[in-house]
Write a structure and sequence with these properties.
CATH class: Alpha Beta
Helix content: 25-40%
Shape: globular
CATH superfamily: Glycerol-3-phosphate (1)-acyltransferase
CATH topology: Glycerol-3-phosphate (1)-acyltransferase
Largest sheet: 7 strands, mixed
Number of helices: 7
Strand order of the largest sheet: 1-7-6-2-5-3-4
Length: 221
């Protein structure tokens, strides 16, 4: 999708029919098969750019969160998916941005920033990769960089039950909670800058994710 910068007043972007239809199918499937329940959906801004910062335990997390959100979102997906004949066109249509699985990929942060400038929401998983131990882990600095540069609302999200999701066929405990939006100004970090500032904001975001899920925040590295 071509991105065009918008002023904040013109930042509401309509959801494409195909995108909305796929959301409906996925949400229905997750509810029917795994007992998906959602709390705090009212916390998602209905217009304007925002960062949806989520915990990450499963490959299913992006479609789970993306299908629930009433907005079109941009997100990073591993580069290998884009060469797949079936999945490649699907992830492209759903605003995925290819990212290398290892190392620092500045280009992805630039493209996610462009999506924010165009009035869209983005999904970002501050931990950088999925963890199967059902605990939160220290974040990477990317979410802090985006938050400080673009000064948009940040919505924390906590997903539970997506680890080994097939178990939810009978346990039916798949849950997503969205917390109250906040800004770097509310965190008292409006003047943070540089690498240490990015890390401070990212750590504060992880604490809000932990608070949303009612779990312990990650230990400080």
């Amino acid at each position: 999708m071509e991105l065009t910068a918008k002023s904040e007043a013109l930042a509401e972007v309509p959801v494409r029919f195909g995108y909305r239809f796929s959301q409906w199918l996925l949400t229905g499937g997750f509810k029917l098969l795994f007992g998906l329940k959602v709390d705090g959906l009212v916390n998602i801004p209905l217009s304007g750019p925002f960062i949806l910062a989520s915990s990450h335990k499963s490959w299913f997390d992006p479609p789970i969160v993306g299908s629930i959100c009433p907005r079109e979102l941009f997100y990073a997906a591993k580069r290998e998916l884009f060469s797949n004949l079936i999945l490649g066109p699907i992830v492209r249509y759903h605003n995925a941005i290819p990212v290398a699985r290892t190392g620092y990929d500045r280009k992805v942060l630039v493209q996610l920033g462009q999506a924010l400038s165009a009035g869209y929401g983005i999904i970002i998983f501050p931990e950088g990769t999925r963890f199967l131990d059902d605990k939160l882990h220290p974040p990477r600095a990317g979410v802090g960089m985006l938050a400080l540069k673009h000064r948009v609302p940040i919505v924390p999200a906590f997903i539970s039950g997506s680890v080994r999701i097939r178990r939810q066929l009978w346990r039916r405990r798949l849950r997503v909670r969205f917390g109250r939006p906040f800004t770097v100004e509310e965190l008292g970090l409006r003047d943070a800058e540089g690498r240490e500032g990015y890390r401070a904001v990212a750590s504060a975001v992880m604490c809000r994710i932990a608070e949303t899920g009612g779990v312990e925040p990650p230990a400080t590295p």
